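Structure representation:
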Amino acid sequence: MITPLRLGLAGLDSSHAPAFTRLLNATAEDSPHREPGGVQSTQPPHPALAGARVVAAWPGTPSADFAMSRDRFDDVSHQVLDDLAIPQTSSLADLLDHVDAVLITAVDPRQHVSLLAAAVDAGRPAFVDTRLTLSAEEVEPVLAEANARGVPVLCASPKRYASAFTDAQGPGAVVGVDLWGPMPAQPPLPLPAWYGVHLADLAHAALGPGCVSVTARSGPNATVLVCQWEDGRIATLRGSPTWTPHTGGRLHRTESAAAFQITVGGPDFYVPLLAEILTMCRTSRAPIATAEMLGVVRLLTAAAESLQTGAEVRV
């Protein structure tokens, strides 16, 4: 018997909010709906997401200094609240009172710590969308409280669960990784903090926690991060200054290597991530260790400092 889950959205300025809702609330009778770009398609229900529905949303407040938040808030809110008919709550506290778990889909990572703290205080399992925060120090006490109270928390890139990447992981220890993908700047956030999070998350998925230093360089054609783990393994992250839907790389083992390429899009792209979130909520076990999630934040913080100083930065 599948445990039913009532999910709530906290923050309506990320394209993931309507995308997740369409997948989770799909029914066989759904009429065609609008995808980004105006493409019409029918979204059938996915068996991996059975028993979970988005039942409420709290829009939150857009960040006036961050275009990714400010310029998308009205459209995303309209899609979720009007097109998808999700009830709006009057406050975050009201949302948490009406759901079993929360998806923090506020796009600005500077808002995430306070939203996560409220979810943990209410005892609600929480997914923090892609970027945990800009500062490991400010979120550590919240994660420690979550662990102490048995409230599971997950923050991850959907690319971590893409089949192209998980297939490449395969058996055997990974001794190094070379990754590439988009890394354009998104002011006012530091350069690596936005799209760089996907590459940093994939590096941790392959190597685990333990990054101890980062050396970063940026030029007209790429931003390159050379990241060393405590046992000597190396991850190189190469970011393009222009956006592309493609991310890829090579996972090295002692006697072999496996290449992969992930392409964002497709009706099922977010399904593996959402399935992990639902499993976490039902088992109360987070699939990623706290040290690993914090490691992603620390790597990106060190990279931003290295870009400023030109020197290696200890994590």
